[in-house]
């Protein structure tokens, strides 16, 4: 950015300075600076040649090892060429690049943000599957017991039966320390399990935190005053769009929006009479009570259904078609509630007649979030408090199976939703009821579905280590189905979505209720719950965390690892350390807040100076 | 993928890679797109730097640009002669700035030049009026266009001179995260 300014203001005389500056930078910085220059290619090439001459001149001054510097430069050039061809191969890893470009061209960046979010979630799942498979499953294969159950086709849907004795679930993993060769290197399965899962969550936490902070920084900090007309006119034209129909639609939208804005300015703020305001408040209150009531009713329904579900398992297996089908009732009902209650909420929103369409969208999304959080919350409560303390043989595998079925049925409902919501709606809109027109792609609802599916997967990682692999496949299929459905059935969005802010909100929703909730559930499971006696890597221990505690005790007798023990006792389990850390974090936050306030006053003063 | 191509010398390719955001493969692909617009005008051998210029009509007919309401301004801003007729250098330059790898302030600089119809380094009211008409396909009445332009200048003009300078424009871009 600073080179942009230098180039504009100083004109010709700074060219020598510029060349000098560029020559003194490292190669990669120099290339970046030249690429960013707002000049024609000819000018940039001239400058580049001058800079290269300057560099060779400089190196000639520094000692007379002419041949050495020349061969150094030659090797540098060939390294860069090698690096460039390597990066071309890395571009092959950017899967779906072409599909994303096509979607962006035809529908704009708001719809594209959903697909980018889907791709981002997919990378989380691929990463988890890879590390779980390498560190937990492959060693398990070495000491696997043969599977005595038979495979019937229905297992793919219910996750029970044959799959119960496979690496899919927690119960199959051994608690032994695996050694192939006598007195050779050993592999402690317990530690591997808990550390792999723990490390994955720590890495996810850091990635989410940094992405969210970066996105927030770019998109929200300067929100204050300039969301007005100027930016709407000059900054929201989506240069990404190349499709003629989409361009015409976008132009029409912009003109409609400008007309609306102008008439809003002309119309004074409508003053409601006291009676009308009271009526509006009552209507809002009633619809909130209705939506919260529906959410509570849905939770109660799910809870009682799951208690009944548990009775099926504790009574023992009957492995006939009826009991297998009965296992599917809970996920079916949960997905059904998740699909149809949002329509009820949209209908409520239409009844309420909000002042701006933006309010309507936000309130509907908030209600959907509350519904989904409550359903996941009640399921977690059921798993942690009821299944874990029941008399079943291997409660972790039961929870894993429940999550497997939920994920699978959610996936099927997602595909069906696409079929009914978009395909049939298009047919209705074009043949029977032409006034409806083509459907639009409902970004908010689809993103919430993704976050819900990802929350379930994250909860399930501890109980079913290969679940992320299944979710990877399901997300890939969802991508293709949604893309085909979008291209065939939908029209570009009519409302202007503030894309960058919505993307930040999606990430925030993923982090805050979803990931933090998952961390709490996993935390309670690892610290408080007693693992089952007969299965899994933690059998016989009082809690899953006890494996780490025992390992530390074992290390205490082993002198070279005393530092690990010291770190454990004084940093990880000590309350004082976390207290000091929190106080430090609060102090730093306060200081940064004061700096921001100071800068705000500075900006105001400078603004006044520019005007005068 | 190897060093077998004979269109450019290795030094020319290095220079292109340093001056644009593209990799070697992308530069060659863009060259073939450029050539496909007029195979009889563009030679396959650029090692001797031939001075070939393609007229604006061919550039404006590219699928990426043909529906863009600002295609003529884009071609004018990036062409050497200011009329929209582009050499290969201008062509690569244009796509480099329009690509997703270009940083926002570079795009903001060129967006300013695109919106500046009379090339006086300021976006004045007449520039804004032309912009609004292009963005809305002439669907607004002249009074509405006038109102919109006045509001935009009122909001974005920081130094109060009645027109938008590059700084005003960039100041606005920083606050509008949706800018592409």
Automatic annotation (TrEMBL), chain A:
What is this entry's stated membrane topology?
Multi-pass membrane protein
Keyword terms of this UniProt record: Membrane, Transmembrane, Transmembrane helix
Mention any one GO cellular component term assigned to this protein in its UniProt record. plasma membrane
Q: Where in the cell is it found?
A: Membrane
The answer, when asked if Transmembrane is one of the entry's keywords, is yes
Domain TMC: start-end pairs: 394-499
Superkingdom of the source? Eukaryota
One GO MF term on file is: mechanosensitive monoatomic ion channel activity
User: Where, by residue number, does the polypeptide cross the bilayer?
Assistant: 151-172, 192-213, 281-305, 325-348, 369-388, 403-420, 456-481, 502-527, 567-593
Q: What is its main location?
A: membrane
InterPro entries with a match to the protein in the record: TMC (IPR038900), TMC_dom (IPR012496)
User: Which family does the record claim for this protein?
Assistant: Belongs to the TMC family.
Write the protein's name: Transmembrane channel-like protein
Q: Which organism is it from?
A: Rostratula benghalensis (greater painted-snipe)
Gene this chain is encoded by? Tmc5
UniProtKB/TrEMBL annotation, chain B:
Q: Note the InterPro entries from the entry.
A: CIBP, EF-hand-dom_pair, EF_Hand_1_Ca_BS, EF_hand_dom
An example molecular function term from Gene Ontology annotations = magnesium ion binding
Give the GO biological process terms: calcium ion homeostasis
Q: Does the keyword Repeat apply?
A: yes
> What are the alphabetically sorted keywords of the record?
Calcium, Magnesium, Metal-binding, Repeat
Which PROSITE patterns does the UniProt entry name for this protein?
A: EF_HAND_1, EF_HAND_2
SUPFAM superfamilies xref list: EF-hand (SSF47473)
Keyword Transit peptide part of the UniProt annotation: no
The EF-hand domain sits at: 103-138, 144-179
> Per its UniProt record, what PANTHER family does this chain match?
CALCIUM AND INTEGRIN BINDING FAMILY MEMBER 2, CALCIUM AND INTEGRIN-BINDING FAMILY MEMBER 3
Q: What is this protein called?
A: CIB3 protein
The record lists the organism as Rostratula benghalensis
